Amino acid sequence: VLALARQQNKRVKVVGGGHSPSDIACTDGFMIHMGKMNRILQVDTEKKQVTVEAGILLADLNPQLDKHGLALSNLGAVSDVTAAGVIGSGTHNTGIKHGILATQVVALTLLTADSTILECSESHNARVFQAVRVHLGCLGVILTITLQCVPQFHLQETSFPSTLREVLDNLDSHLKKSEYFRFLWFPHSENVSVIYQDHTNKPPSSSSNWFWDYAIGFYLLEFLLWI
């Protein structure tokens, strides 16, 4: 693909899972979809690191990590995103102690426009490594990524209503009260939903309700939006 693009003087863009509404991957040149480069290449349980092909979805990676007693320390709101896409778009989760998802990358391989494959890490091509962790699809094609994991863990979620003014006035306090703090603001109102998530040793349980969460909250809502 790169050779053909050079012959025709066209650009090459890479698209990930297609979840982002941004048009950054759109091009009148060549588009590469990495969906079939989706294998787990190596799991190092001693270092707690996993090396994956760049097109793997986090939805497929997470269950495999679970089998090895590992997990990613931080995740975004959705998992139908590729490993390369989720770091390249600067995806974040939450919690003052955690960096964006790109900070979990300890090494990667990059295919540049001239077909050179660069091994990048803190000790190899360090300057390129720092740039390419949030690459925006502009620096080449990410082929593989090595992610730093943590031991598998469970979180207990607590949510409660508040107001936007209260949350903003006490933001430092909220950040210190919970490892994974976030809040959801309902625009054109003062209403806020505050969400705390913290490590727990309690067995997994859920108060979700299929009827309200999916039948009503998803399917009926989607149908009404379609109407």
UniProtKB/TrEMBL annotation:
Pfam family, one: ALO
Coiled coil, from the record: none
FAD-binding PCMH-type domain residues: 1-152
Cofactor: FAD
Annotated Gene Ontology cellular component terms: membrane
Source domain of life: Eukaryota
Keywords: Oxidoreductase
PANTHER family (alphabetical): L-GULONOLACTONE OXIDASE (PTHR43762)
Name recorded for this polypeptide: L-gulonolactone oxidase
Species: Rhinolophus ferrumequinum
Classification of source organism: Eukaryota, Metazoa, Chordata, Craniata, Vertebrata
